[in-house]
Amino acid sequence: LAISRRGLGRRPLISGLLALPPFNGISKEDADRILDHLFSEGYLAMDGDLVTLGSSAERELFRYHGLPLCSVIPDIRGYRATTPEGEFVGTLDPLFAGSAAHGFTLAGRSWRVLARDDERRSLLVVPMQREASRPFWTGGGRHGISHLLAGAAGRIARQREPDLPLAEEVQDAIRDAVSTWPAGCECDEIVILAEPMAEGSWVSAWTFLGDHLNATLACLLRYLLPSNWAVESSFSSVTVAVPGFVEPAAGEEAVSVALLQIRDLSIDELAAMLPELPPDTWRLGSYLPRAIRQRMAAVDSYHLPSVIAALQDRYHPCF
Question: Given 40, 69, 79, 223, which residue has the most CB atoms within 10 angstroms?
């Protein structure tokens, strides 16, 4: 707009911006925030009462003829995971790289992130000695097992038997898998179960929300619970390792209270708890203010509304 309609003031520029299809769903307040950010970063400038291109726009955008200002296309370039010895392990998408700081599974092995370089889009990783239930990257889709498939597994967990006409060996394999899940977990209700360990206890929230939504839920629990309580996730559950100096009942109650907080807080409050994705997750993310990028990540990448809806529909603890 600043190029095609020279001589616009700030108010007419916002009106014109909101009339464009990519922006007609945003509020006037967000449009103001975007303009404030573009002014502060030097992409726009004021010449008297008129808006002109700033020095940053002239330097960075003219090679694109100004067109990128009208697009926020996600950048699909992944993060390269390599070991300290230089061995290439694989490539993770940006969202998964952001939520896998506490460990992930790739190429059939569990890995721990030592360092992350957003500028070079690289991760330095080392193998994890302890195999555990962790988020995993399959190289396709977004986060492994989907919400739909996880819900189907939850229905089998409730029945403890597959209800499809499958071959006997397949049914036996399913029964073997189900037998490792605790009694009481199912797809209709989110169930909290605790089990003792040699030191401390495991508290598991059996959600059957799939890898993606459970990874988001795990991020929120890491924020709300003490930092020395390790939180892991899989397609079926989110598990918290409660230290030995905490009574198992107190650990179970703390996890339940944290889930209630997540259920009842607003999207903006919860978005501030999630790991911030780098601006280049979106091709033109650097042209948007941080608060708007956080909101976009919460809705489009972390699928926070779906997590909240699942807790509101299926989590009703009785203390």
Answer: 79
Q: Which residue has the tokens 């807790």?
A: 311
Strand order in the sheet with 191-196: 191-196, 201-206, 237-242, 230-233
Please compute the mean of the pLDDT values over residues 160-165 and round it to a whole number.
68
Quote the mean pLDDT of the chain.
Answer: 80
Per-residue model confidence as pLDDT tens digits over 171-191? 777 777 777 777 777 778 899
What are the residues whose beta carbons fall under 8 Å from the beta carbon of 312, sequence distance 6 or more?
A: 263
Q: What percent of the chain has pLDDT over 90?
A: 28
Q: Summarize the confidence of residues 34-59 as an average pLDDT.
A: 82
Helices (H), the chain: 10-19, 28-40, 55-60, 94-99, 147-159, 168-179, 211-224, 248-264, 267-271, 290-296, 304-314
Q: For residue 123, what are its two tokens?
A: 């991760």
Nearest residue to 2 via CA among 27, 38, 30:
38
CA 309 to chain centroid, in Å, comes to: 16
Model confidence pTM above 0.90: no
Q: Which residues contact 243 (CB under 8 A, 6 or more apart)?
A: 199, 200, 228, 229
Spatial distance between the Cα atoms of 83 and 79, rounded to a whole number of angstroms: 13
* Residue 216 near residue 302, CB atoms below 8 Å: yes
- At 180, list the tokens: 């490792």
Contact status, residue 288 vs residue 297, Cβ threshold 8 Å: no
